[in-house]
């Protein structure tokens, strides 16, 4: 079950109000594959609270002069690390509970 933070329910206008990031920049970050909103049947973008957090991180990094390709590379590395960590934990749990049988 996913967290409420991952539900895509926020429109781009609300994201703009929450973050101060222009709708144009939000769309640009989507084009650069830094953010992945869902789309309704009418084409309306829908964002999650996790997306809002990611957008503020992206905006902060851009203000520090980090290029979008560097941000994308960093996001991929974080995902790889998270995936490896989850696999390790899952393996440890499986090994622990199999030994107890």
TrEMBL record:
Known SMART domains for this protein? HTH_MERR
User: Which Gene3D superfamilies does the UniProt record give?
Assistant: 1.10.1660.10
List keywords of the entry alphabetically: DNA-binding, Repressor, Transcription, Transcription regulation
What sections of the sequence does the record tag as coiled-coil?
A: none
What InterPro entries has UniProt attached to this entry?
DNA-bd_dom_put_sf (IPR009061), MerR-type_HTH_dom (IPR000551), MerR_fam (IPR047057)
* UniProt domain HTH merR-type: residue ranges: 9-77
- Give the domain of life: Bacteria
Name the PANTHER family for this protein: HTH-TYPE TRANSCRIPTIONAL REGULATOR TNRA (PTHR30204:SF65), REDOX-CYCLING DRUG-SENSING TRANSCRIPTIONAL ACTIVATOR SOXR (PTHR30204)
Query: What protein name is recorded for this chain?
Result: MerR family transcriptional regulator
* Origin species: Halobacillus seohaensis
């Amino acid at each position: 079950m996913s967290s409420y933070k991952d539900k895509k329910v926020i429109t781009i206008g609300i994201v703009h109000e929450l973050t101060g990031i222009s709708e144009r920049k939000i769309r640009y970050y989507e084009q650069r594959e830094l953010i992945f909103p869902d789309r309704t049947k009418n084409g309306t973008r829908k964002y999650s609270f996790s997306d809002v957090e990611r957008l503020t991180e992206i905006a902060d990094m851009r203000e520090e002069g980090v290029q979008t390709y560097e941000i994308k590379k960093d996001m991929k590395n974080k995902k790889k690390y998270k995936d490896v960590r989850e696999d390790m934990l899952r393996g440890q749990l499986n090994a622990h509970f199999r030994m107890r049988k």
